[in-house]
Amino acid sequence: MAGTAVSWRKSSYSNHESNCVEVAELGDGTIGIRDSKDRNGPILTVDRTAMRAFVTGVVRGEFAVE
To answer: Domain named DUF397: which ranges (predicted)?
Structure first.
């Protein structure tokens, strides 16, 4: 991704501290996920299908901690 500007976003529900994850559409059609505390750290990449399945699972409560 060298030389390519990427627009990282985090939830509007996040506070102004750095305890969040950020997501971005990467130029190769994948979604990047990173820790906002370590912006130069590793980036997890997933394809759109996997990201959609994950978000759907979150909305449905499939990952609720009891």
So the answer is: 7-58
Q: What is the largest CA-CA distance in the chain?
A: 44
pLDDT along the chain (66 residues), means of 10: 76 76 92 91 96 94 85
Nearest-CA neighbor of 9 among 42, 29, 47, 39? 39
Q: The pTM is what?
A: 0.77
How far does Cα 13 stand from its chain's mean position? 14
- Contact between 21 and 15 (Cβ < 8 Å): no
| Cβ atoms of residues 29 and 50 within 8 Å | no
* Residue matched to tokens 């997933």: 46
Domain coordinates of the chain in residue numbers?
Answer: 21-60
Angle value at C-alpha 61, between 55 and 65, nearest 5 degrees = 115
